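Translate sequence into structure tokens.
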Amino acid sequence: MLGLPPLFAHILELIVITLLAGTATGAGLRVLHLLRVEPLLSLGERLVFGMLLGYGVISLLVLAVGLLGLLYVPVVVVLLHLLMVAGLRPLLRTLRAAKAPLRSAFNSLRYPPNLFLAVVILMVVAATLVKALMPVATQDDLMYHLALPRRYVEQHAIRFYPDSNYSLFPQLMEMLYTFGYMLGGDRVAVLFAFSMGLLAAAAAALFAKRLLSEKQGLWRALPLLTTAIFLTAPLTGFIMRAANTDFAQASAEMLALYAFYLAIQSTPRPNGRLLALSGICGGISFSIKYYGIAVPGALGLALLAILFYRWRKGDTVQKRQLKRHSVGYIFAYGVPIAALGGVWLLRNFISSGNPVWPAAGNLLGGSYWSPAADPE
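Result follows.
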């Protein structure tokens, strides 16, 4: 990076990703404010949801700029400054409120199992970070996760490349990698994937903490134990060292499930704003991978089942209220998924004539498709 010695280059890359992650979190907090869900979330929950939403905002902006053929560093820098302006106040407001939660978190480390687990987590994250700073060597990165962003940067535009089956896949993470390439190089792109992977671990701990807030004894160690188990799995270290999309998808799905749980637990009726947040996270999951529709789809079916169950078990007043609001709940959850996922499907259709190219080519056809090249 900038011709610096490796150590100084890595330090600069870490500074850049910290700045970009902070900017994304601020932008995501602005989205949470617009959704009016901030009072319903703890500080930690606001930060993890904010980072995911902010990364989604950045990706969509990069996609828009790339489709217009304006992928130039000055344009990306302007976008970065606009995001900083939009997110600065929400981020500062959230950080000012962090004093009490941080004190509580440090106090929890006086419990020996928590201290031990915290040390384990820090060691694993540090070791994985060192691997993430090494030169890219994984097949998927070299074939498309980083190869396509490099082509986009070289061409100053996001285009369909018929020689790559992956160039019309949902590419939310590839948009982040393109952003990272332009502002710091391939290591910053990989660090985007690294930070996205950490979101799932953080969300799991926060979810456990919310469920067990009243528990005592060994239960107090479960949030950190959840994170430690997740991060020490051998596959975790292998995936998080590269610019893959698997843990990014897992993070989006985890947060979709998290927001869905909070929405359904709201009384006396589900919270429509939290359902919208769950839908946005589900849409981000689908924007990362086609497979990312599985969990949001399952949650959609669960929502229908829950609404029907509550309608069957409710009294006359509750049945009337559910009948009046159920369509709104379904739309609050489903519209964000359709809107975010539809961005990529529409791009595919315009570029190739097949919204899920190159899949289903035997049914939908599409440009540059033949039975011999069908990935199915």
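Note: The chain is about 75% helix and 0% strand.
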